[in-house]
Each structure stands twice: as C-alpha cells, then as structure tokens.
Amino acid sequence: MADAKLNVGFLGLGIMGEAMARNLLKSGLFASVTVWNRTLAKCQTLVSEGAKMAETPAAVVSSCDITFAMLADPEAALAAVFGDNGVLKGISAGKGYVDMSTVDEATSTRIGEAVTAAGGRFVEGPVSGSKKPAIDGQLIIMGAGDKELYEQCQPAFDVMGKKSFYLGATGAAARMKLVVNMVMGAMMGAFCEGMALADKSGLEQSALLEILGLGAMANPMFAMKGPAIMARAYPPAFPLKHQQKDLRLALALGDALNQPLPVAAAANESFKTAKALGRGDEDFTAVYEATQK
Ligand SMILES: NC(=O)C1=CN([C@@H]2O[C@H](COP(=O)(O)OP(=O)(O)OC[C@H]3O[C@@H](n4cnc5c(N)ncnc54)[C@H](OP(=O)(O)O)[C@@H]3O)[C@@H](O)[C@H]2O)C=CC1
Ligand SMILES: O=CCCC(=O)O
Question: Tell me: the pLDDT tens digits for 232-261?
Fold first, then answer.
C-alpha cells in the first residue's frame, strides 16, 4: 500500500475516526486522504490539516482506492453503505472498504456481501483502545474478511494501531470485538459497584483503588477511570451509549448461540439505567451514576 501511494478515504469523524484519519494523513504514506462525516462541518479541522473532503460516502469511495469507516453503530454503518449516495454507489471493481465500527456479525456480513457483489473487497476491522490510543496510533485492530485487502491495509493499520490480528472470515472480528467489550462492560459494572459500596460503607475509594492496583486485579482501566469516578466527572472517551450497544449486541450473540451470559446481562441493565438517566453521551464510567439512584 505504502509503495503505491494509494488514495485513501475515511467515513466518520467522531471521537475515534477523527484521530484515526489524522494519523493516516500525518503518516505521509498516502497520496491523499479524503474524509466525510454526516455532519459535514466536522471535516473542516482535517481539511485545514491537508485532507480532502467529499460530500457523500459515494464520492469518497469513488475517488479512493481504499476507504475506512468508523461509525457509531449498526444503523450508522448500514446507512453509510446502503443510503442515498452511499458507499455502494461509489464502489467498483477492486476498491477496498474497511469498516472499523463496532457492529454485529449480521451487519458486517450484509455490508461485506453488498460490497463484494459490486466488485469491491471488504474487511471488517473493529478496534480496542479508546480516544488516547486512537490519537497515539496505539489501537489494537481485529481484522477479518478479504485477506489480501487486510494485508494491503497493514501499513495503514500500523499507523493507526500497535498490533493487528487477522481472525478469519467476515464476522470473526465482529464477534471478537463484542466478546472483548462484553468483558469490559462487565468489569466496569462490577468496579463501579465496588466503588459505590466502598463509599457507602465508610471506606475511602482511593484506598480501594490502591489495594486493587497492588493485587491480581490490577489493570489500567481501574487505575485510569477510578479518579474520574471519584470526581463524578465523565468527559467522553468511550461514550456510554456505545458500551451499552456493545453489551446489547454481545447478549444477542449469546442468545443466538444459547450461551448463558448472566453477568453481562446484569451489567447491561446498569448501562441501560445510566443511559435512561441521560448519561449516554458521557464516558462509559458514568455507569457509576446507576449505582447512586
Ligand atoms: N470511543 C471509543 O473509545 C471507541 C469506540 N469504538 C467504536 O467506534 C465507533 C465510533 O465510536 P466513536 O468515535 O467513539 O463515536 P462518536 O459517537 O464520537 O462518533 C460517531 C460517528 O458516527 C457518525 N454517525 C452516527 N450516526 C450516523 C448515521 N446514521 N449515519 C452516518 N453517520 C452516523 C457520527 O456522525 P455525526 O458527527 O454526524 O454525528 C460520527 O461520525 C463505534 O462503533 C464505537 O463503538 C471502538 C473502540 C473505542
Ligand atoms: O470499544 C471501545 C473500547 C474502549 C477500550 O478498549 O478502551
């Protein structure tokens, strides 16, 4: 990819997409980086840094060799592809489409089949790592689908992430990402309950954090998010509405496979409660507020 100086596109400039597209732009590996966002005004910052802008997903795809997407949820991913002036209107033989959004397997498969039927190539590439890893180019990328396209994207993945995994046929990366985020949501739910119980029982939350941090449960997420919970301030890195979407999709996967997931189901209820409290656009740490009702 790097040698040929391809033209690449990027759809979706939210918390993650803007940082990822910026890293592609800054790398200098590509002849051009063309961006699109549903709210077009959000393209302006990257345009001022050297990106091109297109007014529709179709216009991005038709002017690029490979287009990446980082969109909110299945509805957004499908709208960008199947909507008026969507990706399908710009796809032609050999073009690559790489959807890095966190979606379920059925959504990814539907997109992959449509792109392939139009002569294009498809990879799903959801990521672990949040706002800061996206800015730092330190994401963990889970890839599946067209192996040749995955390999062609390796220089781009190396710019956006610290490690990428090829997991097999389309659907495998979508499933892996949902499993990973199901574990994360359950961990965050349990952590917030522990913080709430510590507080209510007269213990210092800072002491709980330190004790957890010294033992076998030490992990970067508790260390990083604990102080925000203590301050009850939740500027979004990973919006709570997206964590709840991931739990919902993971539970649907469990239902389809008859896999009991009682812990994740309980965590999902806490995230639903926090969302109903109006915390959906805050960081997923705001699930702590569900413990304070
Ligand atoms: N934030 C994080 O830490 C991580 C997020 N993810 C996943 O990455 C994806 C993006 O997350 P993030 O950047 O945080 O989300 P944001 O909410 O910040 O951005 C969402 C993006 O999707 C666009 N969008 C929403 N609905 C539609 C629609 N119907 N049609 C077209 N575009 C739409 C938004 O456009 P507009 O600006 O117009 O609203 C925006 O560009 C999600 O799938 C999320 O689960 C994965 C790893 C980490
Ligand atoms: O999907 C979001 C994941 C956030 C993270 O991995 O820290």
Answer: 999 999 999 999 999 999 999 999 999 999
- Phi and psi at 67, nearest 5°, equal -120, 130
pLDDT tens-digit series, residues 51-76: 999 999 999 999 999 999 999 999 99
Q: Check if the beta carbon of residue 69 is closer than 8 Å to that of residue 98.
A: yes
CATH of 7-169, one of 3.30.70.360, 3.30.450.20, 3.40.50.460, 3.40.50.720: 3.40.50.720
The number of the ligand nearest the C-alpha atom of 103 reads 1
CATH code at 175-292: 1.10.1040.10
- Domain spans of the chain, in order of start: 7-169, 175-292
- Is the CB of 101 inside a 6 Å radius of any atom of ligand 1? yes
Q: Which residues contact 262 (CB under 8 A, 6 or more apart)?
A: none
Catalytic residue among 52, 177, 245, 275: 177
Q: Tell me whether residue 177 is one of the annotated catalytic residues.
A: yes
Whether 89 lines ligand 1, by a CB cut-off of 6 Å, is: no
Could you give phi then psi for residue 141, rounded to 5 degrees?
-105, 130
Cα separations in angstroms, 189 against 32, 47, 118, 175, 214: 42, 39, 43, 21, 20
User: Of 20, 22, 38, 138, which is best to mutate to test ligand 1, by the most ligand atoms within 8 angstroms of its C-beta?
Assistant: 38
